[in-house]
Write a structure and sequence with these properties.
By secondary structure, this protein is α/β, with parallel strands linked by helices. It is built from 13 helices and 15 strands. The strands form four sheets. The protein has a five-stranded mixed beta sheet. Pfam families: ROK.
Amino acid sequence: MSTLTSPLARAADRDRRRTSASVVLRSVLEHGPVARSTIARLTGLSPASVTDYCARFTRLGLIQEAATPRRTSGVGRPHVPVDLDSSRFVVGGVHVAVPHTTVALLDLRGRVVASRELKHADGTDPGPVLARAAEGLGALLAAHPGCRPLGVGFAAGGWVDRETGTVVEHPLLGWREVPVRELLGAHTGLPVHVDGHARALVNAERLFGRARGSRSVLHVFVGNVVDAAFATHDEVHHGPRSQAGAIAHLPVPGGVEPCDCGRTGCLQVELSERTLCRKARAAGVIAGVNPMHLVRAAADGDPVAVRLLAERSRMTGRAAGLLLDVLNPEVVVVTEVGAIHREDCLAALREEVGSGRSGSVIPTSFPDSVLAVAGGAVALDVLYRDPLTVSPEAI
């Protein structure tokens, strides 16, 4: 019997250590500089355990003692708080969108150290796209020689399988069963972690954004790809082979756009940036495919630009309202260009959600760096879930 149960006991012990290490490092992230005694109180762990984990994190280079000790009202040595050491390590981030790839370096607090946008000038074949992404990351690291990479996070829209590190299907890119983890890992020589961008951004919000501490979070991503992600109690729902969050073909009330699936009014074709920019070009507002040009036109007072952005935000609000009815999250984060950059668009979106629930709807916490953060957050989520697995080779 002991032979049968001992592997289970060892696995349970590993899970406990991983969970304890995670909550200690998350406490430093959220409250640092913070005394070890405070971490023990916040986490419910023993002071000895907290001291042990902090010593391990210090050896790994993840945390450091803060410069100024905190004095206590009593006698004895002052409490020396600990904080993240965000000067040493970075993670690489890769986000592949329809028009371009974003490569970035993020520090341990999820802040973008450097980023670069790589246009798909020669098409979207996955081999060259991922090779260029690796080259771009290499160039960023070369320009920041003091930063040591812990790994690379990759994010994209479409159907992305986290477990196998594969983009199963991304119709707009023409990708199918692309082994991203294998290909990008071969190019970079670093650990590569892969996930869908909506799920990645939920993790970014709960780690570094305004949804930190929320018990349940829904994220709605509206770009060329439209998808969603849902997290409860710090766990993002993936579903079998990470298919959760596929909302591209949900029907939108009042939708009129024909979809490739043969129906009319599917969510993605109604809300995509392609549709938005096509309407703006037809109205003579912009000449290209960049939705930020439409935002600038609206800022300059163009009434058609204002109307197009507000209509899209309003329809996004209808979609968010449908998901709210089903999932009832505490917080809804929306990544949509109008709601990010214009108060009137955010107000229109919230109005469609409904006055009773509009307060739970917020725009992304990363308005100027959402794609860079999406890629890096995939790797940072892995770090904060299991920080003791940091490779000694990175030290």
